[in-house]
Hints:
The protein is α/β, with parallel strands linked by helices. Helices cover 24% and strands 23% of the residues. The chain contains five helices and seven strands; from the N terminus they run ααββαβαβαβββ. The longest helix is centred in the middle third of the chain and has 14 residues, at 54-67. The chain starts with a helix and ends with a strand.
Amino acid sequence: MVTAAEVWAALEEIPDPEIPVISLVDLGVIRDVQVDGGRVRVELTPTFLGCPALEAMRRALEEKVASLGGEPEVAVIQDDSWSTDRISAAGREKLRAAGFAPPAPRSAGATTLVQLQSRAFRCPYCGSTETGLENIFGPTPCRSIRWCESCRQPFEQFKTI
């Protein structure tokens, strides 16, 4: 019989479908794992409800649990929203190493355009804070495109959600 610890360890191997340098566990979308006999319930909160990768994540979770010998039940939790605060420290470092600027800590209240245009975002390549917002719309709704004035490299910035 599989244990919750074994399930958590196995889930750490599943990469995010859109950003494969980080696992679903490090991304913070896995809320809970419960094992009851052979049944394994995994609770998942997507980064946003319209996430196009939701079904791919669900299938990957079901396949991983089944490979451990468990009967998978993946529950998508929609009554509690995901936030960038759920990204683990290891996940933030993996993002930085891959050229993504991790999100800044969330301040009280909603993120504003003024915050996105601030120079508080560090370039993942050279560490400079001399960066600017190039485009608020990145390849996914949770990312924007920034430009480093020091090393002249574009990079993706995770929006603080």
